[in-house]
């Protein structure tokens, strides 16, 4: 499923990039082509304008005769266009004159015109289309063709100013290749990069989905055992309907204990599920951690005494802003664990104090401690050090996960220090008010 999503993301990414490249590439290509065409056009136009300054009689091979006949001194001094000394046309631009039938009259540059159909150019000039591209032997040419005032056998002489498009065409074809190969290469690289990035982006989602899946499967697993115990005991009871409750006290007590465990488990699951969704409404009130732990200690005293564990409280005022019910739940989880994992004769001490801008609650016990290899996972959901106690044992394995969430949702942190065989200390630090 994730691989498919990864490929899909990559495909979208590549498609988006391809569209952008296509757009930018087309715009670049068109603007370069336009600028090259403008150059060609203005070179031809300039040459055309310059040539117009010459006496039209120069456009026919008979110009020497004209000169002699006209006896015009000014004109005699004027250099003929394209005769080598002229600056009129650049190296790339040339001109040709033809008669009305397209027969070449003048070709001063000696351009190879064999493959150029001047008849068509004349016809198009006559119909108002001065600008034409034609294919020569080894390159294309752009021509501007116009009828001049010069005549030959009573018909007008046509002036064709042309430029080879070889440079323009080869520049455009190189540009096209660079854009096409660059674009394809870019898309190829983007696909590889996109695939790697998509993998990275999907990792946290994958991790969160996997943790949700594990949570659900762990929860089902945890519930299966108490349900099985309740079912087995129920069957025993049903098999002997004639017996009194007193006679089956064992079964009834087991059912009660498992039901209570399930209720606690379901309550904890609900808390964590709501926490995951961010749906828990927290009260914002001033809570004195000192008062709160004094209260909790009073509630836990009987349980601790029954176990032979002495409970000590050193509560100094430490006021935080938060939800008193949740903070009480946090203190209860820590104190309950401390009592649970401390043998008779041991001590559990609870202290609160204000330390700088933090309010501190510390629960220390002289109990069994937590082995080093388990310390990193102690806040994980369903994690229990003594897994051998197995599901159905008193704890749900969710207490510390809930404690951590309560501390964090109040802008604080929870830390643990433990020495196996000597005891454990949990420290909660929350932002203090006042
Ligand atoms: P549980 O419901 O099993 O107590 P918790 O999440 O509260 O679940 O605790 C997880 C595990 O951390 C416990 O099973 C226990 O092994 C260990 N643990 C928690 N508190 C203490 C403590 N004060 N001393 C020793 N071990 C502890």
What does this structure look like?
With 434 residues, the protein is α+β, with helices and mostly antiparallel strands. Among the domains are: 2-63 and 81-171, Beta-Lactamase (2-Layer Sandwich); 285-431, 2-Layer Sandwich (Heat Shock Protein 90), CATH 3.30.565.10. The protein is built from ten helices and twelve strands. It has helices at 2-52, 63-70, 73-77, 118-126, 166-239, 249-277, 289-307, 324-340, 372-375, 399-409; strands spanning 93-98, 104-106, 131-135, 140-152, 155-164, 285-288, 310-315, 319-322, 347-355, 358-365, 413-419, 423-431. It has a five-stranded antiparallel sheet with strand order 2-1-5-4-3. It has a five-stranded mixed sheet with strand order 7-9-10-12-11. A two-stranded antiparallel sheet has the order 6-8. Helix 1 packs antiparallel against helix 5 (166-239), helix 5 packs antiparallel against helix 6 (249-277) and helix 6 (249-277) runs parallel beside helix 10 (399-409). The longest helix is centred in the middle third of the chain and has 74 residues, at 166-239. The chain is rod-shaped and about 140 Å long. Mean pLDDT is 88; it is low at 63-80 and 82-89. The chain binds adenosine-5'-diphosphate. Residues 333, 337-338, 341, 365, 367-370, 378, 383-386, 395-401, 424 line the site of adenosine-5'-diphosphate.
């Amino acid at each position: 499923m994730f691989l498919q999503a990864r490929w899909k993301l990559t495909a979208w990414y590549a498609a988006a990039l391809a569209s952008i490249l296509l757009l930018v590439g087309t715009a670049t290509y068109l603007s370069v082509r336009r600028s090259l065409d403008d150059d060609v056009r203005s070179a031809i136009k300039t040459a055309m304008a310059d040539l117009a300054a010459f006496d039209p009689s120069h456009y026919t091979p008979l110009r020497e005769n004209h000169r002699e006949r006209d006896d015009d001194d000014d004109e005699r001094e004027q250099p003929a266009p394209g005769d080598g000394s002229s600056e009129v046309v650049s190296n790339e631009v040339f001109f040709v004159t033809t008669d009305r039938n397209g027969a070449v009259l003048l070709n001063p540059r000696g351009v190879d015109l064999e493959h150029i159909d001047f008849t068509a150019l004349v016809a198009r000039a006559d119909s108002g289309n001065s600008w034409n591209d034609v294919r020569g032997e080894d390159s294309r040419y752009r021509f501007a063709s116009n009828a001049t005032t010069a005549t030959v056998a009573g018909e007008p002489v046509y002036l064709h100013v042309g430029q080879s498009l070889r440079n323009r065409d080869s520049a455009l074809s190189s540009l096209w290749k660079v854009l096409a190969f660059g674009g394809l290469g870019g898309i190829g690289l983007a696909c590889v990069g996109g695939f790697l990035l998509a993998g990275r982006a999907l990792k946290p989602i994958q991790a969160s989905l996997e943790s949700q899946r594990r949570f659900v499967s762990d929860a089902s697993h945890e519930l299966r055992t108490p349900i099985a115990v309740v079912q087995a005991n129920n069957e025993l009871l049903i098999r002997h309907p004639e017996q009194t409750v007193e006679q089956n006290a064992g079964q009834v007590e087991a059912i009660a204990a498992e039901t209570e465990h399930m209720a606690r488990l379901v309550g904890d699951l609900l808390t964590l599920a709501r926490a995951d969704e961010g749906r828990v409404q927290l009260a914002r009130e001033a809570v004195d951690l000192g008062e709160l732990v004094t209260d909790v200690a009073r509630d836990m005293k009987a349980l601790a005494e029954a176990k032979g564990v002495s409970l000590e409280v050193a509560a100094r005022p430490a006021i935080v802003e938060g939800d008193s019910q949740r903070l009480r739940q946090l203190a209860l989880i820590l104190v309950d664990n401390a009592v649970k994992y401390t043998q008779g004769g041991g001590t559990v001490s609870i202290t609160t104090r204000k330390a700088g801008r933090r309010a501190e609650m510390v629960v220390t016990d002289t109990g069994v401690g937590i082995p080093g290899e388990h310390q990193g996972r102690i806040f994980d959901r369903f994690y229990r050090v003594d897994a051998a106690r197995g599901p159905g044992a008193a704890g749900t394995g969710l207490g510390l996960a809930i404690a951590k969430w309560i501390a964090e949702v109040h802008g604080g942190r929870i830390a643990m220090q433990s020495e196996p065989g000597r005891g454990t200390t949990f420290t909660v630090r929350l932002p203090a008010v006042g």
